[in-house]
Design a protein that fits this description.
CATH topology of the largest domain: Quinone Oxidoreductase, Chain A, domain 1
Radius of gyration: 20 Å
Structural class: alpha/beta
Number of helices: 10
CATH class of the largest domain: Alpha Beta
Largest sheet: 7 strands, mixed
Order of helices and strands: EEEHEEEEEEHHEHEHEHEHEHEHEHE
Bound molecules: NADP nicotinamide-adenine-dinucleotide phosphate
Number of domains: 2
Helix content: 25-40%
Distance between the termini: 30 Å
Length: 324
């Protein structure tokens, strides 16, 4: 009788708090047609991982238990499936690994993925640094460039500039030639300036809208909302007439009315896998235009601790799980 190969992984069989996460043996995937099997070296941690664990996406995407969390991976190709060309066993790659069904993620020794989702890992980065990039940096790219059409000379507010998405957004907006205002707590101001922000606003001190409007009385061209709620609604007030609010959180009912008063536009982005953009990000990393800040690197077995830290809401940069 043929024995099913297994691998170590973090998984959960129900929605719930961090203690639903288990570490143990699960069946090892094999690559289907058009797929590659990646030997995972590092898995990036994103807020969506704990949101899925808590069941917050269950009405939005199909789920199938047991769920292995994790949508970011860096690793080495272990097997190449039928119909895949241009990549070989042993290639170092990274990917944004979202699939149509939430089931087999990257907190594991192996993950299989459509080859069209992967890109070469930036050679100058460690696997841990590379795994921090795909989801957050692609979100920043698609929000700023695809949705808001940010261009040189425009002014952009990046909320949560010290976070995963915000940190990449500040760097990408500067690379595109925009003037960047980042919002953050005072302890993160030096960090956000170091990423390239021209101005930093303390969202905890008084009204952040006044701080922005005193410098840009006509308002800014684009706001990237990575916070949601009241921050999103109030963001309409710092936009110039005809400006764009691009949000990556659920659009609020009040946001539309606030934007109408400014004749401004709303765009919502749910980041999509895009290997072409990932290759561009690889090139920016190699040209020294995009840096990665790791807040912590933890072993795979500490996934619960990684979720606790992410869920705390004050990550500076990214957190990554090492898979040996
Ligand atoms: N739709 C999509 O495709 C998509 C993609 C990626 C992420 N997201 C969502 O976007 C959000 C951000 O993601 P992320 O990966 O950047 O999270 P993250 O790395 O955990 O971001 C945390 C950051 O948020 C900052 N922050 C918290 N409250 C703030 C506020 N009121 N104003 C300004 N900054 C504030 C914190 O900075 P301080 O310590 O300075 O407060 C911290 O640096 C999450 O909810 C995530 O689920 C959506």
């Amino acid at each position: 009788m043929k024995r099913t190969a297994t691998m170590k992984a973090i998984y959960h069989e129900d929605f719930g708090p961090v203690d639903v996460l288990k570490y143990g043996d699960v069946p090892r995937p094999s690559p289907g047609k058009g797929e590659v099997l990646i030997r995972v070296r590092a898995a990036g941690v994103n807020p969506v991982d704990w949101k899925i664990r808590e069941g917050l996406l269950k009405t939005r995407m199909p789920h199938q238990f047991p769920i292995i969390p994790g949508w970011d991976v860096a690793g080495v190709i272990a097997e190449v499936g039928a119909g895949v060309s241009g990549v070989r066993k042993g290639d170092a790659v990274y990917a944004y690994a979202r699939k149509p069904v939430i089931k087999d993620g990257c907190y594991a020794e192996f993950v299989s993925l459509p080859a069209r989702q992967i890109a070469p890992k930036p050679p100058s980065l460690s696997f841990e640094e590379a795994a921090a990039i795909p989801l957050a940096a692609l979100t920043a790219w698609q929000a700023l460039f695809d949705a808001a059409g940010l261009g040189p000379g425009q002014v952009v507010v990046v909320h949560a500039a010290a976070g995963g998405v915000g940190g990449f957004a500040v760097q990408l907006a500067k690379w595109r030639g925009a003037e960047v205002i980042g919002t953050a707590r005072p302890e993160n101001h030096e960090y956000v300036r170091d990423l390239g922000a021209d101005h930093v606003v303390d969202y905890t001190a008084g009204d952040w809208r006044d701080q922005i409007l005193s410098r840009f009385p006509r308002g800014v061209d684009v706001v990237l909302d990575a916070v949601g709620g009241e921050t999103q609604v109030c963001s309409a007030e710092v936009l110039r007439r005809g400006g764009t609010l691009v949000t990556i959180l659920a659009p609020q009912a009040e946001t539309d009315a606030a934007l109408r008063r400014r004749r401004a536009k709303l765009a919502y982005v749910f980041v999509a896998p895009n290997a072409t953009q990932l290759r561009k990000l690889t090139a920016l990393v190699e040209r020294g235009r995009l840096r990665v800040h790791l807040a912590a690197t933890l072993p795979l077995t500490d996934a619960a601790e990684a979720h606790r830290r992410s869920q705390g809401g004050h990550m500076r940069g990214k957190i990554v799980l090492q898979v040996r």
